[in-house]
Amino acid sequence: MAATSNLEVSTHVYKEVDGLSLTLDVFRPINTSASDAGPQVALIHYHGGFLVIGEKTTFPPSWLINACVRRGWIYITPAYRLLPEAQGVDVVADALDAAKWVTESLSTRLIVAGSSAGGLLALSVATQLTRPLAVLSVYGMLDLTSTRYIEQGTMLMGNPPIPDVRPILDQIEAAKKDAVLDGYPFPSHPPTDKRMLWIAVAHQEAIYPDLLTGHAGLAGMIRKGGIDAIPTNLRHLFPVAFALRGDLPPTAFLHGDDDNAIHVDQSIKVAEALNKLGVKVTCEIVPGKGHGFDVREIPATVDIESDTNTNLPMYKSLRSILAFLDGVVN
Question: What is the CATH number of the domain that holds 311?
Fold first, then answer.
């Protein structure tokens, strides 16, 4: 996390639902002159976790928080309800409501960002919210109608197949009746964590569209009949399939080309589609990097914009992303 001595940190309830008080943390830079130049820019970042695990404090992207501090931008990280106790319509509604709270309470100059599954939320919000300044997807899980999510047999992170999935599928189904969660700490030992097993089986059995929508058999319907099989009232959960258009805000993609959790094609193909529609796009593909490289490999104390020994391709890509956002804001 960025040095809190430069930040005023506060927590706010943005929504009450399902017996939960959904909160967001606001990191506001201290001693900034940004107000002299007009309203501050706010950047909301949705955490990852395949929409099943994670908390608003999960794997904070310190490089991005540090960049916000340097620029006098406000950084916001919200909690949201998780699958499978909640449904995808609930999760996306939370993401949208958090962004609306920011525009109503902090600033209308909003950048919408997310990592991993948070990238899906960021893109979905951008298609529904009054035009944000920009969108940032960091190794985003963007298109749940792609082959990986509708064809059986793709393992998560190269792990061996789970031979008997029935008990785990039963656990997922039973959990839909449990109390709704707005956070689940990232497990210390993922291979034995029950929710990580749910995620693994959802990939292996190609039921992520079903898990997202609560519509059993939807992945198979998409596989056989294409995206037209998705009910109209659920199509906002699939922004790549239904909501890409030329008036979307400038969009940045960051992805490692050795990502075995979310394939790099998720970023490349969406970037290409938006570019063809006339949207201003940048897509930084970092050689040899896997999922979560920006939080696993960059210490919070490293300032990628000024520290020495940061000329690696990874740092150059991050600086290119920030330059793109600067160009949009300015």
Answer: 3.40.50.1820
